[in-house]
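Problem 12. The chain below contains 188 residues. Write out its predicted structure in token notation.
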Amino acid sequence: MKTHLGAKNCLFPIPTTLVGALVNGKPNYLTVAYVGIVDNDVISVSLGKKQYTAVGIKEHGVFSVNIPPAGLVAETDYCGMVSGKKADKSTVFTNFYGALEAAPMIEECAINMACRVIQTLELDEHFAFIGKVVETYCDDACVVDGRVDFACVQPFFYAPDKDYFALGERFAQAWHAGKAVKERRGGE
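Solution.
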């Protein structure tokens, strides 16, 4: 038996991010969970049409995506609760700039991606900014053998029931866990 939920988006939980943009000359950050992978070096972020951060993205054509650790849950949640129109969120974190001068990033986040807008979709309630990742920055301590150690990054996830979830432990290896099923099915 299954419960009918209607046309409900259940691609959750998804990573909680802080999207950064320069707005009126100051770094501004917005908590955004509506993020996605579009291509190997192309991502999407969806911001409500009334969001202050969207003004900076539209003006400069760039943005950053910062992945906060679970230890920053209070600061991250705050950035989603308070508008940059009313509060100066540039002082909540240590800001830095990389390849794109109008895309502020957060030093306290282990991973930062500087993105250039390549397309903007205007939807009913959101702007979906499609961005090409120009450069990715990662704390040295979270890079092992040239790969990101996500246990070190400690990302956390948002679910639509308004809860955050922490990253669990690694329990299987992709493109390896299914080998037994493949062999059992004759190599299909």
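Discussion. The mean pLDDT is 93. Students who got a different answer should revisit the alignment rule from Section 12.3.
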